[in-house]
Amino acid sequence: MPSSVQEFYQTLVARAEEAFAAREEGKKIVIQVGSATCEHAAGSREVLDEFRKHIISSGRKDIVLRQTGCTGRCSREPIVGVFIPGRMPVKYERVDRELVHDIFVQHVQGGAPITEHVLDAEQNKVSEYEFLFCDSSRCGWQGGLRIKDVFTEKLRAAGVDMERVKVSLASCFGACGKELAGTCSHVLVRPLKILYRVKSEADLDEIVQKQVLKGKIVEQLRVGDEPVSQEFFDVYGDVAFFNRQSRVALRNNGVVDPESFDEFIHYKGFKALATVLERGDPQWVIDEVTKARLRGRGGGGFPTGAKWTSATKNEEKIRYIICNADEGDPGAFMDRSMLESDPFNAIEGMIIGGFAVGAQRGFIYIRAEYPLAIRRIQHAMELCHKYGILGENIMNSGFAFDIEIRLGAGAFVCGEETALIRSIEGERGQPRIRPPYPSQSGLWGKPTVINNAETFANIAAIINYGGEWFNRLGTEKSGGTKVFALAGKVRHTGLVEVPLGTTLREIVYDIGGGVPKDKKLKAIQTGGPAGGCIPAKWADLAVDFDTLTQAGSIMGSGGMIVLDEDDCMVDIAKFYLSFSQDESCGKCTPCREGTTRILEILEKITGGDGTVEDLDRLERLAKLVNRSSLCGLGRAAPNPVLSTLKHFRAEYLAHVVDKRCPSKRCKALLHYEIDAEKCIGCTVCARNCPAECIAGARKTAHVIDAAKCVKCGRCFEVCRFDAVIRT
Amino acid sequence: MTVLTDNRAQIIEISKKALPEHIVAFIEKCRQEPEPESQLIAVLHMVQAHFGYLGKDQMKAVAHLLRVPKAKVTGVATFYHFFRLEPRGKILINVCLGTACYVKGAEKIAQRLKDELGIGFGETSKDGMFTLENSRCLGTCGLAPVIMVNDEVIGPLAPDEVPMILERYIKKAKAEAEKSSPQ
């Protein structure tokens, strides 16, 4: 009965809201501490304990301590939020025990934020108001940049103290519907959590006069609906790293407590599931997902709607759905963060998917290396069972569905769908030839839909806000956002979610803050071992599945490693090949033998024994492996080699012709010498040399015996007079 | 659904010598459900969690109880990197060699660890204290380069900090050993 689903959901909401209200967070001071694998590694558990002690010893009853997942701002963790009612939320970075004491005494008790420790602090103040203008080129009106300037001008003209008010730009909120596109823009007022829709300069005047000067809400401009990432921007909107992003899949990361069912419900959790079950029409779900142009976020980029349709066409009624969280790419950690920080969202996406394709059982295949993510998913599943979200008769709809967790055991190839199926069946994870595709014959021979964890994380948002909306966020061919794990030589490492079509430059510079130590950007590696290196000169490439493939790389699961001038591209290619070679399952010859031989040639080149002919041999072999391997692993394994050969051939030539490594990474091609002019004979290098090949008396210039030198570089590191020359 | 051979009770009794009660119970539970053999990897995870590695006797018992060939158990155990067939040291050090760690100097950390401990990857020190391993990616790239000591992720790390960290864990292990044997 359709109405009973809504009734069930409303009962859930009422109960959760009651529990939520009982905590009286609106009236209390909330201290929020991040809790995820990376946060724990940075020391967040000690920070949480320390706050607990402080709260107990202060005897105050109006302070709440809560935990949340990770926001993806990895290099600044642990992150602590202090939310005082009516005031701007303040986040602190790299909090340790001592800072806890200061925060507690000065800010929580004294009311004065410690500005120098504020997350990504741009200025030594915390504003009273912040106006966050939508700066989306997709739906915006006249461009946010202009509105922002006009508004700032109006504030000045009205004599507003600019210390009190901050005006900034944010990436798309996703707040305007199709009918509004191009006619209006939106502005979020923090900390009031109010969204205004502005259509003219007169509207801006209203906001200045009423909101800023009189502190009154301009009701006629206020919009009732909440854009998908509003909760996130309410808390993190002032941080440049975040407000250049669009949070859809990661909307709850750093906002909800990943272990609280009530909080998830409070943030509209399971609303999409209730909508779906009430309609009771699987085809409608598939239509929405198809309209959204959601493409598989695990790497292949296959349209999710088409995959689901294909499974429903099968006559077999026993069907399975699998969430692939076997995040094996080195350098990718978005699935871990999503499952640790917002486990219910992934489960909701899976149940909706299960309903759409008519599956009765779902499996989450997750790496054993992610113990916290496993624990949180397990915990979330228990709560879902308790509240009737999983099991028989979900939400009183008559739909029965259950999920099991299956652990991976450290095999990269199991990310490939047919290998993953073998692994769930308890076999060695070796892929098989497709077709038949899993949607025709998968797990135990039944139709099986496999989607990545990030794909599922988008489903509830698509249902809540509509396929059309999601589609508009992205490019013409693929809708929505993509999460990237930004790491390597970049100032701000962490998780970045941007609309598809964003350029690499925006990701690396505007969000990532560029390359540290003023080094030059050399290349951006995307897609992990299956991807390629995109040279710096192509930084204006708009990121999408097709553009990356054309550039010789792939989207992959979203790893993005920034490489600078110190990184040797031959060495990077070798690194990835040694990975692929090691992870090759050995079933088909091109991959098993091919990757081994490619690696041998690369080792020969970095070892100083390469010839020009080797480069041709390398290219030929790489293309052969690409064409003839059985599964995606083998077919993509040569990508790092082919892309670096294409874009950085000069570097390969330097290795094989001049026998030198321009980036000074390849040990065998290095040569150490001591500059007799600069050497003062301090003997530090000689004492540190493991090969004892540096000779020279105290206070006289030293000499390295090149024949005995093992090229460890220790002398180069310890010399304080720059007397050791490395060529 | 469950096929019971007439000596099932006997097999369970024999297996209990190699496997702890809860694993035997888990396998018996799986056998009541569809596709029990698909739980092989899960069972091996439990065995390794209990013993620290997969011993021959344990694998044999698992094969008997789950009713799968021993060759398949060995095949699965050797296919996946996560499973160890040798006992490991008290302190497991896992060096992340993922891309982010690699470009930030993980190799130097690994070299320093090898030098300090006198063992290579996959080896255990003679005193049974340390086992050194490497991992593809620990998923904490923001803190690169990192290592994981037992369950604790440490990073970002410089090669010169290695001796200090080893010292800390040796002390911790000794203190724990003293605690457990007060004499």
Structure in a nutshell:
Chain A contains 28 helices and 21 strands. By secondary structure, chain A is α/β, with parallel strands linked by helices.
Task: Please tag this protein with its features.
heterodimer; A: 727 residues; alpha/beta; Glutaredoxin; Rossmann fold; 6 domains; five-stranded mixed beta sheet; 21 strands; 40% helix; 14% strand; globular; B: 183 residues; alpha+beta; 2 domains; four-stranded mixed beta sheet; 8 helices; 10% strand
Topology, please?
The complex is a heterodimer of chains A (727) and B (183).
Chain A: H1 2-22, E1 29-34, H2 37-41, H3 44-58, E2 63-68, E3 80-83, E4 90-92, H4 97-109, E5 129-134, H5 144-157, E6 165-170, E7 185-190, E8 194-198, H6 201-214, H7 230-236, H8 240-243, H9 261-266, H10 271-279, H11 282-291, H12 304-312, E9 320-325, H13 334-341, H14 343-357, E10 361-366, H15 371-386, E11 402-407, H16 417-424, E12 448-452, H17 453-465, H18 467-473, E13 481-488, E14 494-499, H19 504-511, E15 521-526, E16 532-535, H20 545-550, E17 559-564, H21 569-583, H22 589-606, H23 612-628, H24 632-636, H25 639-647, H26 649-658, E18 672-674, H27 684-688, E19 694-695, E20 703-704, H28 714-718, E21 724-726
Parallel strand pairs in A: 1-2, 5-6, 9-10, 9-12, 10-11, 13-17
Antiparallel strand pairs in A: 1-3, 3-4, 5-7, 7-8, 13-14, 15-16, 15-17, 18-21, 19-20
Chain B: H1 8-18, H2 21-30, H3 40-51, H4 56-66, H5 70-79, E1 91-96, H6 99-103, H7 106-117, E2 130-135, E3 147-149, E4 152-154, H8 162-180
Parallel strand pairs in B: 1-2
Antiparallel strand pairs in B: 1-3, 3-4
Helix pairs in contact in B: 1-4, 3-4, 4-5
